[in-house]
Specification:
Number of helices: 13
Structural class: alpha+beta
Helix content: 40-55%
CATH class of the largest domain: Alpha Beta
Strand order of the largest sheet: 1-5-7-6-4
Distance between the termini: 63 Å
Shape: globular
Number of strands: 9
Radius of gyration: 28 Å
Length: about 375
């Protein structure tokens, strides 16, 4: 699975380059402007961290010095003091291969924008998905010279007018280009590691893949899910995954007609899918009836030939999927979310009306 996102570290949103670096790298950094100490030395799961500078710069710099420079270079209270990239690393790579890939990804950004970067490779959490290796790459928003002084804003931080004046792509277009280069770099690493797998920065729709995409959980939802508390986004993703699995399975059934067990004996399809996908038999009764009919027709050679000559249509596939997922359909998920939003809005309006009514009442409880 491909994951590469970027976001600005902004003072306006309460962000700080010193705090962000300390957190992702598990270090202690003091913000020399505010005097605030950010101590994350007890943070676990940081596999490796390193500062990577543009090619040709021989000098070295510490994390504390670099990110304090980033803070001191900005005067505005809503200034962007850094940019963070979060990139998923293939679980098939070993520790050294992950390190090399992360260094190359940071080097690409450093050379492309002439910025200073710091990488922090994170291991999967004990309660989470054990394949979730990822790297945080924190970059300065300003270019750095040979003496490690921060100068003008990098191209990716410029607004549309500034980009148009310079004749370069907009920030959003540059992010898309970076995501493509990141995917290419990951694929190179997979090829060198002899892993028969490729990733793509394109969406399922752009790749021509007929699947529903999941949504990114985010920090808060991930924390709750690890505590065993189900969230709305988590429920959505689980339903989407189940939908995609059932769709793939049904397409396989249409292709192979039967599902074989490890002993090469035919078994009832819904019963075989029940343990693996966690679906209830009551939700697959119609599909079961359909498959039983197909099994009965196998004993009739003329019917087998007729079935092979007339493959199932796309409309019939859609109908079966709709029947099987009658209680957990994608449309119902959307409807439930819409209903929850409407209920929340009604509650807020009722509270507002109650508050306005209270304001009109005097001490004795009479309306003024």
């Amino acid at each position: 699975m491909y994951h590469a996102t970027t976001s600005a570290v902004s003072r306006g949103a309460g962000g700080s380059a010193c705090a962000k670096c300390a957190y992702i790298s598990g270090q202690e950094i003091t913000n020399e402007i505010t005097g605030e100490i950010h101590n994350y030395t007890k943070k676990q799961g940081v596999e490796y961290t390193e500062i990577i500078l543009p090619s040709g710069i021989e000098k070295t710099i510490s994390s504390c010095e670099l990110w304090n420079k980033a803070e001191q270079a900005e005067n505005r209270k809503d200034a962007r003091v850094g940019r963070e990239w979060v990139i998923g690393l293939p679980s098939e790579l070993d520790k050294e291969q992950r390190k090399e890939l992360s260094q190359n990804l940071a080097k690409d950004l450093a050379d492309r924008y002439q910025v200073a970067t710091q990488i922090a490779i994170h291991e999967p959490s004990k309660q989470g998905d054990q394949r979730n290796y990822h790297v945080h790459i924190l970059t300065t928003t300003r270019k750095t010279d040979q003496d490690l002084n921060l100068t003008g804003k990098s191209d990716i931080e410029l607004d549309r007018k500034q980009c148009a004046k310079l004749g370069i792509s907009t920030s959003q277009d540059q992010i898309i280009e970076c995501r493509e280069r990141i995917a290419n770099r990951i694929n190179q690493s997979l090829e060198l590691a002899n892993v028969q797998k490729q990733v793509s920065h394109l969406s399922y729709k752009d790749q021509g893949i007929d699947k529903i995409p999941t949504k990114h959980l985010g920090k808060s939802a991930t924390f709750l899910e690890r505590k065993g508390i189900q969230t709305e986004i988590g429920d959505y993703n689980r339903s989407v995954i189940r939908f995609n699995e059932l769709k793939t399975t049904l397409e396989s059934i249409y292709t192979h007609k039967t599902i074989e067990s490890p002993n090469h004996t035919n078994v009832n399809a819904p019963e075989a899918l029940k343990p693996g996908l966690g679906i209830e038999l009551t939700a697959t009764e119609r599909a079961k009836i359909y498959l039983q009919k197909r099994a009965e027709e196998k004993n009739k050679p003329e019917n087998i030939k007729e079935a092979e000559q007339k493959p199932i249509t796309e409309d019939r596939k859609a109908q079966l999927l709709s029947e099987i997922l009658s209680k957990r359909s994608y449309d119902q998920i959307i409807d439930r979310q819409k209903q929850e939003r409407e209920n929340k809005l009604e509650q807020e309006q009722a509270q507002k009306q109650e508050y306005q009514k209270t304001l009109k009442m005097g001490r004795g409880g009479f309306e003024r």
